[in-house]
Amino acid sequence: xxxxxxxxxxILITGTPGVGKSTISRLLSERTKFAWREVSKLAEExxxxxxxxxxxxxxxxxxxxxxxxxxxxxxxxxNIVDYHGCDFFxxxxxxxxxxxxxxxxxxxxxxxxxxxxxxxxxxxxQCEIFETLLEEAQSSYKPEIVQELQNNTEDQLHSNINxxxxxxxxxxEENI
Length: 176
Ligand code: DAT
Known about the structure:
5-stranded parallel sheet; Adenyl_kinase_AK6; cytoplasm; nucleus; single chain
């Protein structure tokens, strides 16, 4: 895929589970008409989940198969890719990478409300405390395309949507 052929940017929305990736991606896709690519759903839909990981109580993702399927989807741009991981996508796919962040107490409440308990809950809170996804994004993409967005409150949610919409408008001015 040649990035020069994209007429719209591709955006990656990443972060620990519960930080608000789906909420942001859905609102953003309604505003921009960009396609929302929920990677967990695509993995299920296209049978990219392999045998069960007993430690984490979730299936392994067949990354190569998933990437083959997604390659055609992202070729023309105009995609919002939403996933709690970011180091296995080809770097050339994305023009902007947004790492969504949430404070520990809000994240704890959101994940508990989702029914997470024990190790699964603790691992996800630790993941946020250790800035695992921020570091993963910073080591996988050029620093100038990685942006961190705090998403604790409704006000921040709307301001984050506006920030990304404005970023898209700027990208269009600079690239078309
Ligand atoms: P993710 O897709 O990262 O797992 P989500 O979008 O499902 O996260 O959000 C998790 C929960 O948090 C969900 O109940 C919606 C809520 N939420 C998201 N953003 C929020 C915000 N800025 N303020 C308050 N609640 C928020």
